[in-house]
Amino acid sequence: RVLKNCETCQKFNRKTSGGTDFVSTTRYLEKVGLDLIEFREEKAFIVVAIDYFTRRAWARVVESKHATAIVSLIKELCSQGKKPEEIIIDNGKEFCNEQLRELCSTMNIEHRKVGVESHRSNGRVERIIRTLREGMLKSKEVEFKDKVYEAIETYNLSFHVGLGCTPIEAVNDDTGKVMLENSPQGRYARRFRRWYREKFKKNQIVRVAKRENLTGCSKYSKGRFLGMGKVIELCLGDSYIVRLE
C-alpha cells in the first residue's frame, strides 16, 4: 500500500491486505466456515456453510439476519450424526450473540471470529459464496430458492481440483485420498508454496510498481513504476505501507 492519506487507517485496513493462509484439516467437520449473504431485490438472505476438509457446502434461504437462522443451520449439521468441532464466523451481530454462544457451549463447539470479508482467514467460505452467485446466474430456475438450491447441489456434485473428486465423494472417501490432498504435502498446499512473495524489512528501499500494469504480464516484464519508496510499516496479511521517496 502506498501511503496517501492517514497512516493509521491504511495500517488497519483489512480489505487491502494481501497474502493468504493454507488451512490443513484432517477430518470431516473439523472446521466449518459460516457466512450470510444479503439479496436486497429478493428481500432475502442466504446462510452459507462449508466444510474445510471435504469442501461440502450448505445454503439456506432465510428472510432475516436473525440468529435463529444461523442456529438452525448448525443444528441441521449436527442432526446428520456428527457435529462441527469448530465454526469460523465473522463479527456480525447474527454471529455474535448469546443464542449462538449458548448453542456452541452446549454442544461443545469452538467458534473463532475473523474480520468481515476476511479472505485471508475465512477464504473458503468467501470462495463458495462467489461460486454460489455464479451458479445462480446460470440457473434456469424461476424461483429464487430453486436457483439457490440448484446452484449448491451442482457445486457439491462437481469435480474439485483441490480434492481430486467431488465434495460429496470426499465425504464418503475411505481411501485416504482426501486426507492426503488436505495435508501440507498435498497438491493444493504445494500451490500455496508457489505463491510465495518476496519479504521486505522495515526501512528497506523498494521500487513501487503500478499494480494494474502487472496484470497478465510475465514476472520478467518491465512495467511502469511509481518510483522508489521506503517501507515504513509491516502489516498483517503479507502487506506493507510504503512512503514514496
TrEMBL record:
Pfam families: rve (PF00665)
Organism domain of life: Eukaryota
A GO MF term: nucleic acid binding
GO process terms (BP): DNA integration
GO cellular component: nucleus
Domain Integrase catalytic intervals: 23-175
Designated name of the protein: Integrase catalytic domain-containing protein
